[in-house]
What we know:
By secondary structure, this protein is an alpha/beta fold.
Amino acid sequence: MFEPEFESMPRGDLDALQLGRLQRLVAYLRERVPLYRERLDGIPEIRSLEDLHSLPFTYKADLRDTYPFGLFAVPREECVRLHASSGTTGKPIVVAYTRDDVDLFARVNARVLAMAGGEPGMMLHNAYGYGLFTGGLGLHYGGERLGMTVVPVSGGMTERQLGLIEDLRPDVITCTPSYALTLAQGFAERGVKPDEISLRFACVGAEPWTERMRAEIDAGLGIRATNIYGLSEIIGPGVSNECVEARQGSHVNEDHF
């Protein structure tokens, strides 16, 4: 674990932490965001976690209707980074990070990389896309925060990626499951056997995949692959990940989400 004091916190302590943070969040939204001030009007004060069901949903349409900055809870000038969705089904969803958010982004991604098998001193081959997509930068800074050596390859350039993996010999790879299969096929076409590949662990996600695909990835790259989950509307990657030991479901970073 990267932060065992939070990741293995006793349930009673975690409940108290969640309640305090939820109460502060609701009060902050009432004060700072007109849409939430309107929707929270008439809703009683949050006194327990059981009151969560009384809070209104936020819909994707709300994010699009207030594009680009209408749901920001801080002045835009306090934001140090913006990310956005592709906008293929409508207006892009713009998400912003303050300096504290960027720090949190790194911490929760350090946690998920540790769940996936990463350790300080290991090398991380990060084949998630950089740019407006949250995946690349989130796991990049998570790897650095964990103490890994990060190779910021991004997506595509498969022949180059195969060569870099052979030459640099990283321990962990982060990418989509379909791209992990592409790399496995590329190594096979080069005549490289799975036990000759340096990779030991993979942290994959950003698209649906199956247990059959996991078995193919494990066998094709000689690794143990785990599923990472996140969504830009919350923070991006780093919401949860499977542990490499069991791979029987995701461990949510419950102190934040």
